[in-house]
Amino acid sequence: MAWRALAKKALSTSYLSNCGAAITASHSLHSTLPDVLLCSRVDLLTASRNLRSCWGIRNYHASVSLLSWRGRKAEEAPGLKTLGREKQVKRVNKLRAPPVEARYVPPKLKQQAKLTQEKTVEIFEGMTLVELAKRTGSSVRVLQEILTSIGEKVGSEFDPITIDVAELVSMEVGVNVKKLHSEEGAILKPRPPVVTVMGHVDHGKTSLLDALRKTSVAAKEAGGITQHLGAFVVSMPSGASITFLDTPGHAAFTAMRARGAAVTDIVTLVVAADDGVMPQTLEAMSHAREANVPVVVAINKCDKPGADPEQVRIQLGSEGLSLEDLGGDVQVVEISALKGTGLDKLEEALLLQAELMDLKARVDGPAQAYVVEARVDRGRGPLVTAIVKSGTLNVGQYVVVGAEWGRIRAIRDMAGRAAELAGPAMPVEIEGMRGLPMAGDDITVVGSEERARMLSQGRRKKLERERLERMNQENVEASAEEGDEADDVPERVEVAVVVKGDVQGTVQAVADSLRSLNSPQVFVNIVHMGVGPISQSDVDKAQACNACIVGFNIRSPPSPISLSAKQANIKIFLHRVIYHLLEEMGKLIVEKAPGTAETQVTGEAEVLSIFELKSRKSKGPDVKIAGCRITDGRFTRTATMRLLRSGEVVFEGSCASLKREKQDVEAVGKGNECGLVIQDCQDFKVGDVIQCLEQVIRKPKFVSSESGAVRIEC
């Protein structure tokens, strides 16, 4: 014990004055300690470690026995724990499931297309990437990568870009665009006014234009009504030129009237003096108000005996049109298109309104044009009727019209004469498109074929995406409606239709009118629309969808196509007048409709006497027979009978027997007497009233108004 105490005292840091003394003491003690004292050796080792940790000195001159002791395992000294830092061992979860093959997840794109269908940005010619990035919400770097991918040279973010490049980049980002055309810095020159003639059907719009042009177009039109959107340049007696747009007045051509109001400078509202303000008159006023264009009223047919122009003025004033006669600014001219009176005053009013508007347009630079109508010619291909808004349209330019593109092969005026260029307010017919665009599309001039193709593909993808989203929305709404419907509602029948027409505008008008015939019982599904004659592919589509084919203002199909349609049991309806077409399609829809089952009173009878017949069975009840006279309608044996007493229902049941003059009959008419037995009814009294009830299927009705609007009433 003395040796152990001496060792602890010598190794204590309080008794050691410096490191050298501590080392010397350690050597002397270590050499004198017996090897059998295991506890002392452990104490020496611990003290030595404490010294090294306190003074930062490492014992490289330690004895061989000490160095060998440091290498021993802890098991040789049971009950002791090494003070050194233990090695961290990572735990492995042995219950971990084996890896499985995971599905492939594509890497995230650098710029994901956001669902911003509601977001629309304004773009213009010469805008910079910085401005476009602020409007679209994307970074400049992302827009530069898009420019590189479409083959555009990437410069500084402050370099100007063209409006078609801005549209391409915006479509790649996933936003809608609204083009702003600025005339800043351009040379503006006066241009002719564009006047749209609007009004109700058969109020004399085309007759007015015939009187101005010295032509007779109205006499050649099918049904005596205008069914196309026409554009003409009329040289007035004063020497000025005015571009006129003739719009249809039938209710089916609402979209055509809207397009005419969108491209016009002045609206000439034609109202018949003997008919007054009609539904399409109010619609024309609404289109002019929405387009924010001035109106000049032409009261036509003032030469007729029943004409009342003052009444027309009062009606227009009551509809919110501020006429000059009532202190407003809308000019009113009384004319007669048939006799040609008042046309000079109408010309003066139109030119005065154009002078007040100071109409000017840019002549130099790429053209901006608007598609009025589009059709397919058998020898020339797709033809586009357009009005140039500004700039100059030249032969050989690459253009993008909606989702279609092409290179202008020829330009013709409305008289059919070829021209090399078209200026502002000039209606022309363009030839050279790769496909048929939609009426109402804008015409964009681009610099190369590659740019035209890329812009067309981008717009086509955007239209397809919008179509799919619209279909999904319609399916969701249809599912919700089906869930809300009651069980007793009859099943809705689908009538599939393939629509073909002479021009794009009339095809769209016919399709919209057919969709207006939808009802809770019948759904009109337009499976295909096209311009041109009926082809074999149309017959194949109709056969695949079990559809009928509607042709408007086109020639009859060739004999092989007609024979193929007949063999496939496909109906083809050909018409040249819109209301004849709608009337026949309305009858077809009414025929296809399942109808609704209703209980209808088909006859009434009065009980005159009561007869009692003993039952042949010993325990069976007696049978009571009501002797009746039919006062209204007729009674049938298969019908249900209702017994009324003092206006209240006493019993209702099926007819068990119906006899007349002791003979079983199937029906008894008005004024005849009969014997009647109602199943399980024994409570007859003289004076009771018996009604004959039958289940009938009530079909919907096709309704056509005076304005031409059609609908199906269920």
List keywords for this structure.
714 residues; 17 helices; GTP-binding; mitochondrion; 6-stranded antiparallel β-barrel; alpha+beta
Please state the oligomeric state of the protein chains shown: single chain
Mean pLDDT: 77
Task: Specify the overall morphology.
Answer: elongated
* Overall radius of gyration: 47 Å
Binned strand content: 25-35%
N-C termini distance: 119 Å
Unreliable stretches covering 5 or more consecutive residues: 10-42, 51-62, 64-84, 108-117, 216-225
* Total of helices: 17
Query: How many beta-strand elements?
Result: 34
Tell me about the largest β-sheet: 6 strands, mixed
Read across the widest sheet, the strand sequence of neighbours is 5-6-4-7-8-9
- Structure class: alpha+beta
Query: Helix share of residues?
Result: 25-40%
Region (Disordered): 468-487
InterPro entries: EF-G-like_DII (IPR053905), IF2_II (IPR044145), P-loop_NTPase (IPR027417), Small_GTP-bd (IPR005225), T_Tr_GTP-bd_dom (IPR000795), TF_IF2_bacterial-like (IPR000178), TIF_IF2 (IPR015760), TIF_IF2_dom3 (IPR023115)
Subcellular location: Mitochondrion
Keywords: GTP-binding, Initiation factor, Mitochondrion, Nucleotide-binding, Protein biosynthesis, Transit peptide
